[in-house]
Amino acid sequence: MVSALAFSTMVALPSQAQEYSPIKQIEVKQELVDLGKRLFYDTRLSGDTGLACASCHQPDKAFTDGQALSDAYADTLHFRNVPTLANVGHRAAWFHDGRIGTNLNDVTRESITETYFMNMDMRIMQERLKQDPIYVDMFAKAGKGEPSNGGVRSAIEGFLKTVTSSGAPFDTGDMSDSAKAGFELFTGKAGCVACHSGDRFTDDQPHNIGVPENPDIWSDPDRHVTYVTYAKFQGVENYMNLRQDLGAYIRDHKEESKGKFMTPTLRELTYTAPYMHNGMIASLEEVIDFYNGGGGDAANKDQLLKPLDLSDEEKANLVAFLESLSGDSFDVPAYNPGEFDTEYTVITDWLNKKN
Amino acid sequence: MFKIQKFSTLTAVALVATSLLAPMGAMAGDRPSELAPLGDPPNPASNPTTPEKVELGKMLFFDGRLSGNGTMGCVVCHLPDAGWDFPDKISMGYPGTVHWRNSQTIINSAYYDKLFWAGSSSSLEKQARSAARGGVAGNGEDDGLEARLAFVPEYVKRFNEVFGDTWPNVRNAYKAIAAFERTLVQTDTPFDNYMRGDDKALTKQQLAGLELFTGKANCSSCHNGALLTDQKYYNLGVPTYDGWQDDALAQITYRFEIYAKGVTEDKYRTYKEDPGLYFRTKETADLGKFRVPSLRYTKYTAPYMHNGMLETLEDVIDFYDAGGGTNDFSATKTDMIQPLGLSKKEKANLLAFLESLSGDRIEMDYPDLPPTEPLPAPTN
């Protein structure tokens, strides 16, 4: 707050000026967070024990995986870019298509049980966790009783809520002159702030900006099959003939929603390349070039997108500003428990112990 | 040697042979009336067996793509070289799990009214779907499995030819697998030949064993008919699976099954044994009961019982000779099981007869599976 105030005295803010604050930490009971953190890194939460949440959401990359398109369960691949989990508890809707608009508890359920994510029968998961005395102890301390499906979702939700950006030059006031000039463009000539608004720099709404389709989705059957599975489950018509990611269309099945994706946060961008819902843009410089050209081609592209006519210097300033929105790494003990043993413990005296 | 397309021809020959031998009625009269040779497998009107469907079903049976992780096809737990089941007490589980019951042979499964040890599936079609989706078996999900099939051009073509599907319908995959399984039958064992009139088909020792089987040992009170099972449910007092005491993964699966199949919390906390038929009826009288298995093809399907706790056929005979065993649900143990007082020779005779219920091994080469490929260009 202090830095934002100090900052506002340094640059002339345009009419849509607003006050910016560092992202607020959401308070969660520490024992629940510790439990959720361990679960987040535990491969026993996937059907074949091959994947943990952290397999795709890696802490040193602001909980992304560095690939254009994500891996998926076992022999399959995913059709979207891994979204960052920075400040994920503040979102209004989750996944690039915004298909879950309730809470992170539901997001966790979806991610653990969905056939192409972790493909886990949560009843087996529950019994696996009961076979690890550390979890039995942690669930009790977190006030969740014995290990359970609901307790897992609640704990991971609790952990995710604590993933909070900190230390960004934008928040600390340590911005370069170039970054400051970039901020002026961001809120002015370049018009970025129209959608990238608020402390997280997103309006939490879906837009179509004409990002090109990623051809790898449709050329690789191990990826395309994941899209077919998804589209079929979402009740999309004619899904076998689709060669387009329909995005937020699956929320309302309205023609104008095709190709819309949730505005991503601009926090922690230096950790999260490549960019866009399908990873089609490799660098921030290319992202700026994309917008400078008025975005891509799409029938229902957002009217706000126009060629910007930015100079090389202006583009460089915008990149500097975007970089000033990235702060401290999440690859620290608060967000990464380090390696731990995932063996199970035999319950001795089985016949006489209660299950 | 088993040949997949020949079932109708073989059956026709068998029928002719039977009718030709019918005049030798004096012989047939010697045969125990509670037993019978095995006839044609069922050919349900809801899923008629055709050579093309069987061929498709064979590929799908061997194809791991019909499972959650792409490797756990039917064949993994029903190995042709291991009696078309899994050669361990408990079947192999999905990676990261173990199963909790013994895998049953596919051979002659066509004739059962219900499938699985507690009869939870009413058809082979439903059994295939249950196995493909079960958390400790295939762990697949219909949408994902159906999508995988669409990326195999050979399957797209064959599902269209066999079922008229534009894109493969996963329910039809289970139908094709069931049709294939209906060809995995064995109707020409020494026992069948004997029952059809060939007096020389059984050895003297086997004939002595047959007499015990239907007489002193009383096996045929449950193991009767052409399939050598009355398809009813009994508790014999088979010992509890011992892996639950020292295998952490087995302990996990045990609790999962109890939890998933639905019992009261008190039972979930205290049961240490497989409730079997109880899961279906929720009648206390059905605790620990399992469907009488066919005795056909048992030469190749060791170990035995729903939890594989009896290692050999000799052990099985010793178990019955002792009047069965005890387990947590002994209150429901059938009275039909009583100590038999069999001599060593009688046991050997019974064993010899049991072996006459199996013919040659049914062997099969794994088919070449068609590749997954990108979809063709969209049609609209």
The domain tally of chain A reads: 2
CATH topology of the largest domain in chain B: Cytochrome Bc1 Complex, Chain D, domain 2
Tell me the fraction of residues in β-strands of chain B, as a range.
under 5%
Query: SSE order of chain A, as H and E?
Result: HHHHHHHHHEHHHEHH
Q: What structural category arises from helix and sheet content of chain A?
A: mainly alpha
Search tags:
heterodimer, A: 355 residues, mainly alpha, Cytochrome Bc1 Complex, Chain D, domain 2, 2 domains, two-stranded antiparallel ribbon, 2 strands, globular, disordered N terminus, B: 380 residues, 15 helices
What does this structure look like?
The complex is a heterodimer of chains A (355) and B (380). In chain A, 34% of the residues lie in helices and 1% in strands. With 355 residues, chain A is mainly alpha-helical. Chain A folds into 2 domains: 2-9 and 170-323, Cytochrome Bc1 Complex, Chain D, domain 2, CATH 1.10.760; 30-164 and 331-336, Cytochrome c-like domain (Cytochrome Bc1 Complex, Chain D, domain 2, Orthogonal Bundle). In chain B, strands 1-2 form a two-stranded antiparallel sheet. Chain B is 36% helix and 1% strand. Chain B contains 15 helices and 2 strands. Chain B has 380 residues and is mainly alpha-helical. Chain B is globular, with a radius of gyration of 22 Å. The longest helix of chain B is centred in the N-terminal third of the chain and has 15 residues, at 7-21. Mean pLDDT of chain B is 93; it is low at 1-28. Classes of the chains: A mainly alpha (355), B mainly alpha (380). The interface between A and B is large, with 47 and 47 residues.
